[in-house]
Amino acid sequence: MITAYIGLGSNLGNRQDNINNALRMLAEVQDIEVVHVSELIETAPLAQADQPKYLNAVAELKTTLSPDDLLKTLVNIETMLGRMRLEKWSSRTIDLDILLYGSEVIDSPHLTIPHPQMHLRSFVLDGLCQLNGDVLHPVIKESANELARRLNGCDFVRNHDLPQVVSIAGVIGVGKTTLAKKLSSRLGCQMLPEPYDTNPFMPEVYAGKKELALDSQLYFLTARVEQLNHNLLGKGRIYISDYIFDKELIYSRQTLTPEQLTLYDKIYQSSNSKVTAPVLVIYLIDSPKNCLERIHKRNRPYEQKIELQFLKNLDAEYRQLFANWKICPVIRKQTSELDYTKDDNIEHLANQIKYYVMIEDNKNVLVK
Q1: Which positions are annotated as active-site residues?
Q2: CATH superfamily, region 164-357
Q3: What global pTM score does this model have?
Q4: What is the phi-psi region of residue 9: left when phi exceeds 0, alpha when psi lies from -120 to 50, beta otherwise?
Q5: In a 10 Å sphere around its CB, with 0-12 CB exposed, 13-18 middle and 19+ buried, how is residue 342 labelled?
Q6: Maximum separation of any 2 CA atoms in the chain, in Å
Q7: Are 81 and 94 in contact (CB under 8 A)?
Q8: Does the pLDDT value for residue 57 go beyond 50?
Q9: DSSP per residue over 105-160, as a string?
């Protein structure tokens, strides 16, 4: 018997009864055993705010049915429970989706397994983690626990009419630019490099001329707004940036006086609306001490006065930023786990990026 995981959802009628009835009807099928069911999770609809809230759950099944026959069984149960198939994001009495079927990968005109958007839905992954957090996504090659951690309790829907910006974040010296170059080369996409070496004020600021800190931050702000302007980037195209725009506030808080920060914040807020938000962040993590050692090794003269405490302050700010991050999924990578010199490590990460930014699929959509 194959272990399969099924997503259940309802937002019309008696939602709990609809889910319970679907589970009962599944259990009555001769070739299906309902093994475990997660707790019910109530969530807001993804696409239409005027819809009723959904109840969602995940069920673990044992079955001898083929994937196609299991899909037919689910569709029959949906029909018997009054499911009306209207437009893509419409409300429904019951929604039954195959999330995983063993470790199989299927891509047919009527069925995709694993479910092509399950890794973007906390309401699915949280239920799956209750049943088996170690179960492996057969395409992304990560556990349900890891995939859920990336979402921070949020649910995401991709808009392929927007630029697909993947931002690499982390403290100075953690290896952002090196990774960005390798990933952009592997993915065949444009890299958006931080205008670090072209900033005429940076060497002076590191040399101790604090009065130029505002000029330096405004130079970075202007350059990054221009790079990430959503009117200038191509719709649906993938870009890799070796920075995250939100670092602006992290660095300004560390380098500017209160008076400078007040002025800078006003300019930042007026510019923020022009910037394309990332669809994925890769957050590189290493100890400030190791980052300082890399800074010394790369031997940029104006960086040699960077102190360990400065990097510790940045590290704390980055950790706080991503502890509360709700904008997009975040892949956290300890640099000790990511050897940039090994092609298979870069390939693994590049394949994951593709699955996060290129998932539009009308055959099989998890909605709520």
Answers
A1: 242
A2: P-loop containing nucleotide triphosphate hydrolases (3.40.50.300)
A3: 0.90
A4: beta
A5: exposed
A6: 77
A7: yes
A8: yes
A9: -EE-SS-EES-TTGGGBHHHHHHHHHHHTTPBPTTT--BHHHHHHHHTT-B----T
Contact between residue 55 and residue 40 where contact means Cβ atoms under 8 Å apart: yes
Distances (CA, A) of 190 to 175, 187, 227, 338: 18, 9, 11, 22
What amino acid is encoded at 245 in this protein?
A: F
Is 363 or 197 the better-scoring residue by pLDDT?
197
Domain ranges of the chain: 2-151, 164-357
Sheet containing 190-192, strands listed edge to edge, beginning at the edge strand earlier in sequence: 190-192, 238-241, 164-169, 280-285, 330-334
The structure tokens listed for 280 are 């994925």
Quote the CA–CA distance of 22 and 12 in Å, as a whole number: 14
Q: Say what the pLDDT of residue 337 is.
A: 82
- Among the listed residues 226, 243, 330, the one whose alpha carbon sits nearest the alpha carbon of residue 280: 330
Position 190: which residue type?
A: Q
Are 19 and 57 in contact by the 8 Å Cβ rule? The answer is: yes
As a whole number of angstroms, the distance between CA 15 and CA 178 comes to 50
The DSSP-derived string for 249-304 is HHHHHHHS-HHHHHHHHHHHHHHHTTBPPPSEEEEEE--HHHHHHHHHHHT-GGGT
Q: Is 362 helix (H, G, I), strand (E, B) or coil?
A: coil
* 75, two tokens: 């569709």
Residues 175-212 have pLDDT tens digits of: 999 999 999 999 999 999 998 888 888 888 877 788 89
User: What is the b/e burial string over 8-39, where b = at least 16 CB atoms within 10 angstroms of the residue's CB?
Assistant: bbbbbeebeebbbbbbebbeebeebebeebbe
Burial class (CB within 10 angstroms; exposed 0-12, middle 13-18, buried 19+) of 267: middle
Residues 6+ apart with CB under 8 A from 210: 255, 257
Pick the CATH number of 2-151 from 2.60.20.10, 3.90.79.10, 3.90.740.10, 3.30.70.560: 3.30.70.560
pLDDT in the model for residue 366 = 44
Classified as helix, coil or strand, 169 is strand
The residue count of the chain comes to 368
- Give the DSSP letter of residue 245: T
